[in-house]
Design goal:
The structure holds 2 protein chains of 2 kinds.
Chain A lengths: L2 H12 L14 E6 L4 H16 L3 E6 L6 H12 L6 E3 L3 H8 L9 H6 L2 H4 L2 H6 L1 E2 L2 E2 L1 E8 L2 E4 L1 H7 L8 H13 L3 E4 L4 H26 L3 H5 L1 H14 L11 H9 L3 E6 L4 H6 L9 E4 L7 E10 L7 H12 L2 H11 L6 H4 L9 H16 L2 E3 L9 H16 L5 H15 L1
Helix pairs in contact in A: 2-16, 10-12, 10-19, 12-20, 19-20
Chain B lengths: L11 H35 L16 H8 L1 H32 L6 H9 L6 H11 L6 H7 L16 H26 L3 H9 L4 H9 L4 H16 L3 H6 L11 H11 L3 H32 L1
Helix pairs in contact in B: 1-13, 2-13, 3-7, 3-10, 4-7, 5-7, 7-10, 8-9, 10-13, 12-13
Classes of the chains: A alpha/beta, B mainly alpha.
Pfam family, one (chain B): BPD_transp_1
InterPro entries (chain B): ABC_transporter_permease, MetI-like, MetI-like_sf
GO cellular component, one term (chain B): plasma membrane
């Protein structure tokens, strides 16, 4: 064997030995699995990472892009089954309780931090209940999104001769008619199942009120799901659907938002992450675009909360890292930077009462005011379309029935309400 | 150089020589056994449990199958598979055989034309699905093109019509697979003995009759392979649906593979997803096993 061959053999054999990275002077490594990979989200996560590393821990990033988290959840499940879960993962809604019931989440590591930082008084009860299991904190909430917004392009409204933003469904239909006559798309909508269900739950909230919404979409009461109120809500949904963009079937939400930004469409029903599209197009809230609560839902607030859950780890050294992440996430600086970048509002009650001092725009300030008000009246409800109110199986059943209803020109509301009841019963 | 002794030393190396092929194949056999049959068995077991989003082993009997049969979406997906599979295999075979027969006529530039027809095979189903989604889009694709060219009354909105969207899937899949089937049949046709054809011509048969009665029946093995390949493409179609319609509008273009994926992974109903996977396997076996049996039995008699 000549020298080159011997060198090649030596390198091949050497590469068989695992090379471990030694993090010197680190108090511990924490791996975080999340799907905050778009521009603004990544900037916010980098703030978290910088602070955690300043505190002396090593942050191992496990970002999994795409699918609104579907890919990340699949990765998470495979790792959990393999016995190698990450230290922290982005899980939200009732999924947290499902994961906790399998015994994989750590119920002890956040106890001290919660007591020190007084999380119970810092967070609204609904918010803290979302991240608790059997009374123990298993996750830390990161931000609050409001889902029942209607985004309006005031220029388009002016051109179509609409003087007032719609506050009831009748005004919404009148505005839609005027927009159609003026040649604009009344409602920009990409007909993907989750978008259809976002509109569905907004209409249910408007027609059945916050109590009716809770009975039907959160408690899954069969009488509420098949009753006359639901039939009325489905009839109104069909009417709203007639104003939707006909070419929008299957489009992503941000492409449809682009139509409103460019002045081709007048309105869009979407959560406040739509703000990031407007900000990226350099538009200013209140001037270039307006956000109003979906007609008929100004006393209600459907929320979507992102949260980071902590897993039980074999290596006890990661506990300190997990606690530090939780502490930093609920700190004022991260809350401000993250929510400003993502278009949401902070979870801390003290920040919500003085939003203008942090530089949030007018839409966020309205959202915060409504959050605090609706929390007292019972108008604060979890969003079904965004996996906050039910398990994924039930949400999937809703998606199937609603999206079929919207796409079938011959669909009958009474029939569909019955189908809805049956589908939810078999998915529970 | 001394000559090597004719009789070799007995034992170790001889035994190694006999065992060597088996040893080399052993890892692949092991992987197939575990990775393929082992996991099929695991899925089969899971379909009788009440697994939700992580596997659990609580026995649930046939409950998951019962829930599956109550599920409207599963019936739509199964019906779509029957329609899509049947049309896809049938139309692709017809187009593939026709193109192969035409190319077999000793034409000029045969190599060039053959390559063009074979090109779609090089694309992945995702690219095919996306490209055809744009082509069949009502406001932007062929629809708009033909209207702009003057044919005002033309309307091709199958993609957003719940009753017709399956045909769009068939169009895209046929376009992709026809070239490959054509290549298979061309190879088969080239292998046909010319003396049989000359004998038939002496008997006075016309060319179409020769093809229909003499040549094609002798290509039965090629038909067999073609149907196997097309059936497997049809049943595992997931990327085509995901790229073209994502199961929409509603769930009218859903296929079983997509149903299984979304129920097992996105919706955390692993028990139902496993049951649907086992039913898919059952459907495939019900078709393939008799066909395999009949084809291989005939071979032995030849």
């Amino acid at each position: 064997m000549n020298a080159i061959n011997r060198l090649a053999v030596a390198i091949s054999i050497a590469s068989l030995f695992p090379l471990s990275a030694f993090a010197a002077d680190s108090k511990g490594t924490v791996e975080v699995v999340h799907w905050w990979t778009s521009g603004g989200e990544k900037a916010a996560v980098d703030v978290l990472k910088a602070q955690v590393e300043k505190d002396g821990f090593t942050w191992k990033d496990g970002a999994v892009a795409g699918g609104g988290g579907a890919t990340a959840m699949t990765v998470l499940k495979s790792r959990a089954v393999a016995g190698n879960p990450p230290g922290v993962a982005q899980i939200k809604g009732p999924d947290i309780q499902e994961w906790a019931s399998t015994g994989l989440l750590d119920t002890d590591v956040l106890k001290d931090v919660a007591k020190e930082e007084k999380w119970d008084s810092l967070l609204d009860k609904k918010v803290s209940d979302t991240v608790k299991y059997d009374g123990d904190y298993v996750a830390v909430p990161v931000n609050i999104h409001r889902v029942n917004w209607l985004w309006i392009n005031p220029e388009v409204f002016k051109k179509a001769g609409i003087t007032k933003n719609p506050t009831t469904l009748e005004e919404f239909y009148a505005a839609g008619d005027k927009l159609k006559k003026a040649g604009f798309i009344p409602l920009a909508h990409g007909g993907q199942p989750w978008q259809d269900s976002t509109v569905f739950e907004a209409v249910v909230l408007s027609v059945m009120g916050a109590d009716g919404y809770k009975k039907a979409l959160v408690d899954l009461d069969n009488a509420a799901l098949t009753g006359p109120e639901m039939v009325k809500a489905l009839t109104e949904l069909k009417k709203v659907a007639t104003y939707m963009d006909a070419d929008g079937k299957g489009q992503d939400w941000n492409l449809e938002a682009g139509k409103v930004i460019n002045g081709k469409a007048g309105m869009q029903i979407m959560g406040d992450w739509a703000k990031s599209e407007w900000t990226a197009a350099k538009k200013v809230a209140g001037k270039d675009y307006e956000c109003v609560a979906f007609p008929g839902t100004d006393k209600a607030f459907t929320y979507n909360i992102d949260s980071l859950a902590v897993f039980k780890q074999k290596d006890k050294g990661t506990a300190a890292g997990q606690q530090d992440i939780a502490r930093v996430v609920l700190g004022e600086n991260f809350q401000k930077v993250f929510s400003i970048n993502k278009g949401s509002i902070p979870v801390r009650n003290d920040m919500l009462s003085k939003m203008d001092s942090y530089g949030f725009d007018s839409c966020a300030q309205t959202a915060a005011k409504d959050f605090l008000a609706d929390a007292k009246t019972g108008g604060l409800q979890p969003s079904m379309a965004h996996n906050m109110a039910t398990t994924l199986a039930v949400q999937g059943a809703f998606f199937d029935v609603v999206t079929n209803y919207i796409n079938d020109p011959k669909a009958d509301p009474a029939d569909t309400a019955k189908k809805l009841g049956a589908a939810i019963k078999s998915a529970k | 150089m001394s000559s090597v002794a004719v009789f070799s030393k007995a034992s170790p190396f001889d035994a190694l020589q006999r065992w060597l092929p088996k040893l080399v194949l052993a890892p692949s056999m092991f992987i197939v056994l575990v990775g393929f049959y082992g996991y099929i068995l695991w899925t089969f077991v899971l379909s009788f449990t009440n697994s939700t989003f992580l596997p659990s082993y609580k026995w649930a009997g046939l409950a998951q199958y019962a829930r599956l049969f109550d599920n409207d979406r599963w019936w739509v997906a199964s019906k779509n598979l029957a329609v899509f599979g049947g049309m896809f295999i049938g139309i692709t075979l017809v187009i593939g055989v026709t193109l192969a027969i035409f190319l077999d006529q000793k034409i000029r530039r045969e190599g060039f034309i053959r390559t063009i027809y074979l090109y779609p095979m090089a694309l992945s189903m995702i690219v095919t699905g996306t490209a055809w989604k744009w082509l069949l889009n009502p406001g932007m694709g062929l629809d708009k093109l033909l209207r702009d060219w003057g044919w005002e009354g033309f309307r091709l909105d199958w993609l957003i019509d719940p009753d017709r969207v399956v045909y769009c899937l068939v169009i895209a899949a046929v376009w992709q697979a026809s070239g490959f089937i054509m290549a298979m049949f061309l190879a088969g046709l080239r292998g046909v003995d010319q003396s049989i054809i000359r004998a038939a011509q002496i008997d006075g048969a016309s060319l179409p009759r020769i093809y229909w009665s003499v040549v094609l029946p002798s290509l039965r093995p090629v038909f067999f392979s073609a149907v196997m390949i097309l059936a497997h493409i049809a049943i595992k179609s997931f990327d085509l649906v995901a790229a073209m319609t994502a199961g929409g509008p509603g769930y009218s273009s859903d296929l079983p593979a997509m149903f299984m994926y979304s129920f097992t992974f996105s919706r955390g109903q692993m028990g139902m997803g496993s049951a649907s996977a086992i039913l898919m396997l059952g459907a495939i076996l019900a078709i393939i096993v008799p066909y395999l049996y009949s084809e291989l039995r005939t071979k032995r008699h030849d």
